[in-house]
Amino acid sequence: MFRYKDGFVTNEKGKVMAVSGGIDNENRNLVVEQRNGKVHQRWRVVYVDEYEKEPTKGQFNKKFGLYVERDFYVVSKLPSGRYLDFINNRNFVIKTKNGRKSQVWYFHQQSLTIRTRYNNQSWDIKNAGRTNDMQIWSTNSGWFQVFKYENNQFINWQSSKVLDVKGAKDEEGHPVGVWSNNRGRH
Questions:
Q1: How many other β-carbons are positioned within 10 Å of the β-carbon of residue 1?
Q2: Does 149 lie in the same domain as 64?
Q3: Exposed, middle or buried by CB within 10 Å (0-12, 13-18, 19+), for 14?
């Protein structure tokens, strides 16, 4: 039998329910272990009638800083103000505004990803986040596809790397990737 008290779900032997390995990923197993007070052992109870509903189409998602399914452009603050685009049906670059759907993006609430109107694929840090290169890719909602918009920057939810014009070069077709947050303009 389990009991909820002070943020812990505890059994009759004093062990608590925890997320396996303390890893915050979808579909992680739950385990019962000795209480150590770490965050992966803490829980909160939210009654269904008090649960804040997810934003729907056109509503603002405060957590991610974007409107749900509302089209937007991503425009560089470098002097030429080029638009985020992609070439070879995959790789991120900056380009002059051209009216193509490859420059139109939207936030998809269910997957928590930013997608292109060109083919509905999501922003993706290549190789499951093991590089600094960006691409569009089939949506899987891995951490390397989840970005929020905060303080005029697109920030990866887990790595905290930001969308970045590589080398701050304000040139047509220049690559865009992710980089450590240096609060820069690129």
A1: 5
A2: yes
A3: exposed
Q: Are residues 106 and 147 in the same domain?
A: yes
Q: What was the pLDDT predicted at 183?
A: 62
Q: What is the pLDDT of residues 50-88, one digit of tens each?
A: 888 899 999 999 999 999 999 999 999 999 999 999 999
Cite the DSSP H helix spans in the chain.
126-129
What is the CATH classification number for the domain harbouring 151? Answer: 2.80.10.50
**Distance (Å, rounded) from C-alpha 109 to C-alpha 88?**
27
The reply to whether 141 falls in a domain is: yes
**What is the predicted pLDDT for the residue at 88?**
95
Tell me whether residue 110 is exposed, middle or buried, using C-beta atoms within 10 angstroms of its C-beta: 0 to 12, 13 to 18, 19 or more: exposed
Is there a contact between 103 and 84 (Cβ–Cβ < 8 Å)? yes
| Rounded CA separation 10/3 (Å) | 5
